Amino acid sequence: MKKVESGKKKTSLPVKASLCVMGTGQLLYRQWIKGFLYLAVFAGFLWYLAAMGIKDIIGMFTLGTVQADPWLGTEGDDSVIMMLRGILAVIVICGAALLYRSNVRDIKRTDEMIRAGKPLPGFFKATGMFLDRKFYMVALALPVAGVLVFNVLPIVFMILIAFTNYGGDIVPPKLVDWVGLDNFRRILTLSDIKGTFFRILGWNIIWAFAATFINYFGGLGLALLLNKKCVKGKRFWRMFPILAYAVPGFITLLAFKFLFSYGGPINYYITAAGHSAVGFLDIDAGIKAKLIGLFVNAWTSIPTSMLLATGILSNMNMDLYEAASIDGASKWQQFIKITLPFVVFSTTPVLITSFTGNFNNFGVFYFLRGGLYMDGYFLASDTDLLINWLYNLSINNNYYSIGAAVSLIIFAITSLFSLSVYVRSSAYKKEDTYR
Amino acid sequence: MRKQKRYQAAALALALAAALSGCGSSGGTSADSGQSANGAGQGTAQGSGNGETVVLHVLENDTAKSVGYFQELLDAFNAEYADQGIQAVDANMDEFTNLAENGPYGYGPDVLYQANDKLMTYAEDKHILALDIESFDCYECTPQAAWDAFRMTIDGQTYYCGVPVNIQEPMLFYREDRMPQDWQTEWDDDQNGVPDFFENWNDLYAYSKYLRDTDPSPGKDSQYGFMASLNNLYLASPFMLSHGAYIFGEKDGVLDTEDIGFAAGDAANGLSALRQFAALMNEGCIDDTITLNRYEKLADGSYFCTVSTPDTRSLFMDRLAGKYREEGLSEEEADAKAEENLKMIELPAKMPADGDLSRDSAQMSDGDWVNTIVMGGVNGYGVSSYTQHRQESIEFVNFATKYDMIKKRVDMLGIAPTRSDVAEVSGDTAARIFTSLSEGRIYLMPSVKAVDQIWTPSQTVMGDVAKDPFREKAGETPKYKDEQDMKNALETINRNIYDAIHTLAK
What we know:
heterodimer; A: mainly alpha; MetI-like fold; 2 domains; 19 helices; 0% strand; B: alpha/beta; D-Maltodextrin-Binding Protein, domain 2; four-stranded mixed beta sheet; 40% helix
């Protein structure tokens, strides 16, 4: 027993000191600059906690206790700002914890070097060694901080909103409260909302698959066509899809809305021919509006796929086709066995983002057919996607918390799908195959 | 309890301020100011008091800016208050800027001009101040109905949060030179000098039908009578409101957003009338096609008359003058002819109680009619609760709503003023609109946030009903065959509005 105890290193005073107060151990080892820097960070952190950190953390739990009254000049609590400050405080505390960990590791390393009788490097030399050894950390520190503030913070904020009653009548200066999973419960249990959610989800999945398929193979088909040797004036023909691509999306969508409206040119020619006008996008449109949506989406998206496929096809090894021809492969077989695997391999990540983009394609039905609430739908129409419904709920009707809950569900669906497809794809499994 | 005490204190401060301040006079240069709810800034505005100029940021609507009225207002105010160290400037913000989002963080305007429904959305959360309306120069000559557009009740206390300027309501636009030659003999049964089709909806329907039946074009699409986007609640409101429908009921003098009244009274009859009129239009009445092409179509004579708001008069005028220019008139001649021929009047005052527009008006007695009620609004000024210069802002509003400035506004913008003294001298139309408001023929948009939720549900159903005649024409089965179908449609509007306001809020 005695032997075991003697084998155990005794924690030195500087290590104990740095465990209690950052930087003090380093100071005891006469590492003045490093010690004071750690100490300054520690002091700054304590000051932050005392001045606002603790208040912000508490505020994140309470979301305010005093309601503002602009008439009486009462400066109340702003729940939304309190939540944001609370998230920021958590990020600061996490940052401080990481620094504390580095402080402990540093003092332990120093302690071991002292015990081993090795000379301690000076601050600048140690900094140089650190920069050399962990350059990636230094280079990525600023972008990571930016991502934390500009990406993580809003995402966490949105996630947290889904667990509050923010929206409807509860908007600042009124105080917001935490409601747990109540918003999710309402989406999944209130009969009207539940029915609408699943109906829209069903259509949303069909839409995302159909739109991705049409856009992808439309673009590939167009690229293959324009790649054919027999096509004359390729540059001229390529110009048209690029023109369609260059026009801002919402202008194209508004143009199509006019095109298919009762006062638009299509109905003009239909009526001029003696037929009744067709409600392409009105309340009775049903499948017509859905097909028009797919068509308009293809119009705006196929040029992107075409450009992508054109670039990939230009890297194809033509010897493969020559060999296939000699072996007697038909054109279709060459397409299925050579072209398609090559293009799909290169574009799987793009295909996934395209699917996600189509799943969350807000613009098409907002511009083509916004402003309809149909029977059997809760504040939505039969062409609305989840993202449009989310907009109706959160922007048109101010139900921010319900909107946040819906967006979390959308996120869960799209991320699950994207990840599962990606890890099963050749692009992930056989990364080196086509290099 | 604590909150209640605050309101009581605010009410007390208001009452005290009202007692202390005298009534304004139209000729005064430093009118007694209204008092904000928190009692701040009593007495006459005197700039910052430390020799620095107080700058007020004023938000006006774009039309007032484009025709130059706003600049005249600023110039007049700045000249008047230069010695008091107050200067008003354009807030340079979007006319629909959201005070609720910007104000609390110090970015909103000090004074804002907006419609009552928008302004009162802010009032609900106290983003704009409650005002002591009796201290304003315009108080005595503004009807209570206009003040009520800015009325709000909190904990039993009544507050007014805006100062009315002008009335908005849907108006009928037509071309004098497209009137039938024989209207005095054929379309003026009562020989009162006003065509019957501008007096009651049955004759407007009859004349529209006559135009459709006699359309000489092969496609029968060159001449229409009354045309409107019937899915637009604001423009097609007479069909609903005239028959007893209302938007929100009242409970103990306070708007009750749970009581939604689109299906109230005989509103189903009104919806039947809407369906009936749609049959004389084209499919453009189902969506916003007519709203978009009405300027062009009225100018080229395809539409005999259409409905729009007074602030769009200049658009009709421009298009009509353009048409005359195309016919070979000089610019001056075209403008003069357009001015002479473009007429803007109120919608026909009588609507059939049973909703049957095809009945001969000559055979109908007084009891067969109901008064036409249109949806309207009152535009006015409000003062931001976040202004650092409450008293000076109130002073600006008082100045901007005095006789001279409102008269100038009428002359330059063609608005219908809420001041009776200006309305009296501003022509027949302004006077008639003023009378309509006073007599309750204009249903003011409710001054609550929830009013934002009425548009999409009503637009969907009204568009669907307007489509019904075209379903029949296309050989499809109509959806709205009888009164019960109409009632169900109206109940759908009620239900969707209720869902939008309350279902998720509970």
